[in-house]
Amino acid sequence: MNMVKPKKKPSSHDSTPNSINLGEYEYFHVASSNLERPIGRKAEKEKQKRKEMTNSDSIVVLNEMAKIRKNKLVLMQEARDHDNKMLCLRQEKVSLRQEELLIQKEKVLLQQVKARLEEKIEDERIMTLNTSAMPPMLQQYYLQRQMEILASRARKN
């Protein structure tokens, strides 16, 4: 037990200064300060990994990245095309609705014209009736209707 020396703990006062004045040997200090630290384990492993990954591996990775970018561009273009098709379909839908409204308006106008024509035909039939052979009440009804038709014609003109 006597032979084992206790380990000394380094203290802050026992440390040596960074530079020692060597006088004429000052060039030794400058040369020793330029020495690099030895590479650590992690740095050495990283260096080995970089060596293992050759240029061909880099080219493969770059090619894969280029394929991914190309696929992304293709998908984006397809999305734009789809959006354009949807826009065209919406525009067609709007134009079809407008056409449908025009057709409905024309249909209403045609129904109005048809109603006027039927009314005109009925008025003409009433105006051409011979009321002399009719019973007096019916004769009076048709004469009154004829007067109404004549009055409405006079207002229109």
UniProtKB/TrEMBL annotation:
Residues 1-10 have a biased composition (Basic residues). Residues 6-149 form the No apical meristem-associated C-terminal domain. Residues 79-123 form a coiled coil. Residues 1-20, 36-56 are annotated as: Disordered. Keywords: Coiled coil. Residues 38-54 have a biased composition (Basic and acidic residues). The keyword Coiled coil applies. Transmembrane segments: none annotated. This is No apical meristem-associated C-terminal domain-containing protein.
